[in-house]
Structures are given as structure tokens and as C-alpha cells.
Amino acid sequence: MKSKIKDRPYVICHTLTSVDGKIKQTIWGLDDHHKYFEIPAAKIKADAWLVGRITMQEFSSKKKYDLSKGRTDIPKKDFVAPVKAKTWCVVIDPSGKCFWDTNKVSTETVIEVLTEKVSSQYLDHLRSRNVSYIFGGKEKLNLELVLRKLYKLFNIKVVRIDGGGHVNGSFLKAGLIDELSVVLAPLADGTIGSLTAFDAEEGYGKRKATWFKLKSVKKIFGDFLWIRYQAV
Ligand SMILES: NC(=O)c1ccc[n+]([C@@H]2O[C@H](COP(=O)([O-])OP(=O)(O)OC[C@H]3O[C@@H](n4cnc5c(N)ncnc54)[C@H](OP(=O)(O)O)[C@@H]3O)[C@@H](O)[C@H]2O)c1
């Protein structure tokens, strides 16, 4: 799959939801809930997967690093670690809250997406672990700029956004989703105020909903549906 969009990766958002759009499987009673997300995800060819800070903290270090002795003179410039990697995992971590023991999650090599709010000592931590990082803005992230940097600096041509709801919602709101991959679980969750596949903003503002065109639909895992949509 090739991006038709110049200078940025093709973006596929992949999500596992209940029929009411909820994404936390807390009360779903699934045997091995990871497989329902991961097995279809693995069939989507991509150079990188991208998640929000909260989702990545399931994979990053559980240690709390003491940064007080770190360097204080590191400039707020993109850093491409000298590593050979074919596939990447990217975390949207504007304030630098993820810590790393290594620069890998499974076989993928980590890229941190930061704002200039982060400290030099945090950058020192990332460099000490050979973790690459890019800046997506001073205080707020410009997601289009982030995508362009992923394309230019890491040759990422296709990126799969793997959640959670906030990161999906912010790419949706920015109009940067080219394709949607939904694994629809045959259950109604029914919780009020819990996370949904796209948590873009509160209430009804001026934004219009995003429409998609059906590409394919397949029955999987018994009564689950794997639905693929193309952006209109
Ligand atoms: N069912 C599924 O398909 C699926 C997939 C993935 C995850 N999940 C579940 O979803 C839950 C996490 O979802 P979540 O929505 O709470 O969190 P999330 O999307 O994983 O992470 C949200 C955080 O990422 C940062 N962030 C994301 N977009 C940003 C933007 N445009 N600008 C600035 N910062 C941005 C912020 O970090 P800061 O707070 O540091 O500013 C934000 O609080 C977990 O329970 C996880 O297991 C479900």
C-alpha cells in the first residue's frame, strides 16, 4: 500500500470496539483480549504503529527514573538515534512521561513524539537509551508536522494508529485518517462516560462527523466483524 499523500505516511487507524463504540474491555469477559486486536492488526502492513502516551505506558518501563543528574544543555532538536530498524513504534508523549529501559517494544524500535515542554534531562534519558525523538510543536502538537517528520526522518510510509481513544480522536479531528480498520465485538458495553474509539472533543461544536466508504467486511472470531473503511 502506497501513500497518495505527498511527504507524509498513509494513516490507518485500527480499533477494537463494542457495538456502542467502547474500547476498554474491562467488563467484556474475553478470554485473551489481546488476540482480537492483534491478529487483524498484524495483517495490516505498516512501517510503524503509533499510540498515545497512556496506551504506551503498558509497554514502557515501570521504573521511575531519577533525571536530576541528567544533562541540562541538550537543545530541543530532533534526534535520530544511530540504530538500524525496519519497523517502528511511535508514542505521542507531549510532556515526556514514558521511561525506557531499552529502545524496543517487541521487535519495533521506539520513537518519542514530544513538545518543547520536556526537560533537557528527559532528552538525556532518551539519548542514553538510544531512543529517537522528534518535536511536534512548542506547547501543542501539530500532527501533520509529526507525520511529515516520521516520513522524512524514518522513511515511514504507512503508519497504523493503534489507539487509545484520545490519540485516535485527535488524528480524526485533524482530518489525518486515510483508512479505518474496526474490529467490532458482538457486545454492548453500556458504560456511560468511558473511553470510545474516537474521543475527539466534548459535546457538539462546529466540527462535522467524518464519513467513510466501506472497503471490506469479514466475519472473524465467530461473530466479530472486521470492517475496513476508506476516507471519503
Ligand atoms: N480497544 C482498542 O482498540 C484499544 C486500543 C488501544 C488502547 N486501548 C485502551 O485505551 C486506553 C487508553 O486510551 P486513552 O484515550 O485514555 O489514551 P491514549 O490515547 O493512549 O493516550 C492519551 C494521551 O496521549 C497524549 N496525546 C494523544 N494525542 C495527543 C495530542 N493530539 N496532543 C497532545 N497529546 C496527545 C496525551 O498525553 P499526556 O496526558 O501525557 O499529555 C494524552 O493524555 C487504555 O485502557 C488502553 O488499554 C484500547
> In what range is the share of β-strand residues?
25-35%
Q: What is the mean predicted local confidence, pLDDT?
A: 96
Largest sheet: 10 strands, mixed
User: Can you count the beta strands?
Assistant: 10
Class of the largest domain, according to the CATH hierarchy? Alpha Beta
Along the chain, the helix and strand elements come as EHEHEEEHEHEHEEE
What's the CATH H-level homologous superfamily of the largest domain?
Dihydrofolate Reductase, subunit A
Which regions contain 5 or more consecutive residues with pLDDT less than 50? none
Termini Cα gap: 17 Å
- Helix count equals 5
Number of domains: 2
**Class by SSE composition:** alpha/beta
Compute the gyration radius: what is it?
Answer: 18 Å
- Assign an overall shape: globular
Report the bound ligands by name, code or SMILES. NADP nicotinamide-adenine-dinucleotide phosphate
Can you walk me through this structure?
The protein has two domains: 1-47 and 157-232, Dihydrofolate Reductase, subunit A (3-Layer(aba) Sandwich), CATH 3.40.430.10; 52-142, no CATH class. Strands 1, 2, 3, 4, 5, 6, 7, 8, 9 and 10 form a ten-stranded mixed beta sheet that branches. It has five helices and ten strands. The chain is an alpha/beta fold and 232 residues long. The structure holds NADP nicotinamide-adenine-dinucleotide phosphate. NADP nicotinamide-adenine-dinucleotide phosphate binds at residues 15-16, 23-24, 37, 51-55, 92, 94-95, 97, 141, 143, 162-167, 170, 195, 199.
